[in-house]
Amino acid sequence: MKNLKLNTQRGGLLTIASACIITAGMLTGCHQKDDVTTKSVVVDIDTIVKACPVTSNYTVEYPTEGIQPLIDSIRVWINSQLGGTYTGNLSDAESIVNHYAQNICRQADEDFDGDEGDELGISYSDETHITREYETDNIVTFSLSNYIYTGGAHGQGVYVGNTFRKDNGASLTWNIFREDATEELQQLIIGQLLQFFEVKTTEELNERLLDTDVENIPLPTTPPAFTEHGIQFTYQSYEIAPYSEGRPQGVIAYKDAMPYLTQEASALLAH
What whole-number percentage of the chain has pLDDT above 90? Predict the structure, then answer.
């Protein structure tokens, strides 16, 4: 793919946006399962903005048809997770994906003047994927993984899973667990963290955490996600552990979680 070199001044976003569209490759395909029809939208950008090499790769499984409250909820979630700056028609899959794939170009345009990008020897990159992870008669789970690098020792990555009820499009949160089962839920999470960190005792686990005591382990800020093998939880980088430890996560088997779920959440597992 041919690279474009841009020497626009600060504020030349229309030129930047046009160049990004030219270098973008779009591939679409359809997939349908039960109540959600999706289209795979892929945007690849490989360009130069003010002498800074910029790449952006977006692969988004975007809902196009289905139960209206459900696809509306998924679309709003996707827009929110990608930044919430797109204000156009959320049914236009290509427009929304292009909008966010070009963000890294806009950022480079704001960050550099002239050939400053080349002088600093920095390359900007953004890789983002949204996929449908799991589905039953009652629920569907989508996930977002993202990694952005704009200089420094390392980039920033995020993984978020979100499960939606099919009947009304509502997102499932940590309130799927009974309020009186907080301690039991913490123990289930600790058990998974012991496996993630490959340690045997809570004392060893404490040594791997940041400003967090195992006895008062907080719930992840990211909501739980229903998967094929159980309820997945994910802590983002720095949330409870150093960056070098990655994103601590685990999957609580349904048989282990079932006694502590609300009646409403338990009913969603029947299929």
Answer: 75
Q: Quick check: 61 and 142 in contact, CB under 8 A?
A: yes
Residue 122 main-chain phi, psi, to 5 deg: -110, 140
Q: 């299929």: which residue's tokens?
A: 271
Class of domain 175-268: alpha beta
Domain spanning 5-165: which superfamily? Fervidobacterium nodosum Rt17-B1 like (3.30.565.40)
Chain centre distance of CA 235: 12
Kindly report, as residue ranges, where domains of CATH 3.30.565.40 are found in the chain.
5-165
pLDDT band at 120 (very low <50, low <70, confident <90, very high): confident
Is the Cβ–Cβ distance between 6 and 15 less than 8 Å? yes
- Classify strands 36-49 and 52-66 as parallel, antiparallel or unpaired: antiparallel
Rounded Cα distance between 249 and 233, Å, is 5
Question: In this predicted model, what pLDDT tens digit does every residue of 15-29 receive, in sequence order?
Answer: 344 444 444 455 555
Task: Please write the tens of the pLDDT for every residue from 208-220.
Answer: 998 888 888 999 9
Question: Which pLDDT value is given to residue 15?
Answer: 39
CB 23 within 8 A of CB 45: yes
Residue type, 3: N
The residue among 216, 220, 186, 214 whose CA lies nearest residue 201 is: 214
Where, residue-wise, is CATH 3.90.640.20 in the chain? 175-268
125 forms bridges with which residues in the sheet? Answer: 55, 149
